[in-house]
Inverse folding.
């Protein structure tokens, strides 16, 4: 009987900690590209001009963003997120064909996320989520035109900690972002150079979340 009462009390306490309403989160951290290959391919009437993949050796970049979330079920939230990612890389050149990656890559992700956020009494709050959205960029084609954005996907996991006298929670998050290749193809010297840039990577974030 005592065990049954204890179990019922624990379930009641757990259920009482379920979240409701909404929240705002800001996050910042570091970004490392794990996909950064530039693929060149070109043909003309004389035959193949170039067909080579080049690693752009992207260095560590920065992340800054925010999101708004709302609980649609106990422990389940949907989020709208906007996040800027930067990286640093050298200009990529192959056989005197310069890509548009002369500036450091910069992307903005507009994501919709679904997140599982259970809460436990007296413990940090873990969460895990997936998202999909649209990724814009600062790239140009070889011909100097703007490059279209791409669909993007992400998975994230983190944990939030509450502190006395501080509203909201402070936490850490790991995030993996993937997308289709960006098409940088364009005309160079009368030849169409098909150029694709692989993009994606891992972010390590500090987060601050507060409910409303």
């Amino acid at each position: 009987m005592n065990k049954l009462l204890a179990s019922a009390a624990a379930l009641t306490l757990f259920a009482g900690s379920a979240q409701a309403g909404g929240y705002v989160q800001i996050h910042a951290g570091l970004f490392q590209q794990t996909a950064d290959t530039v693929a060149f391919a070109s043909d003309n009437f004389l035959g193949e001009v170039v067909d080579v993949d080049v690693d752009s050796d992207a260095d560590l970049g920065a992340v800054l963003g925010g999101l708004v979330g709302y609980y649609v079920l106990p422990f389940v939230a949907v989020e709208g997120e906007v996040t800027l990612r930067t990286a640093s890389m050298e200009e990529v050149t192959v056989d005197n064909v310069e890509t548009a990656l002369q500036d450091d890559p910069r992307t903005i992700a507009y994501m919709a996320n679904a997140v599982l956020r259970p809460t436990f009494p007296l413990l940090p709050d873990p969460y895990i989520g997936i998202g999909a959205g649209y990724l814009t960029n600062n790239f140009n084609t070889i011909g100097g035109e703007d490059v279209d954005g791409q669909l993007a996907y992400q998975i994230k996991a983190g944990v939030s900690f509450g502190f006395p006298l501080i509203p909201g929670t402070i936490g850490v998050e790991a995030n993996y972002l993937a997308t289709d290749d960006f098409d940088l193809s364009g005309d160079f010297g009368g030849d169409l150079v098909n150029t694709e840039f692989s993009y994606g990577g891992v972010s390590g974030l500090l987060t601050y979340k507060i409910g409303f």
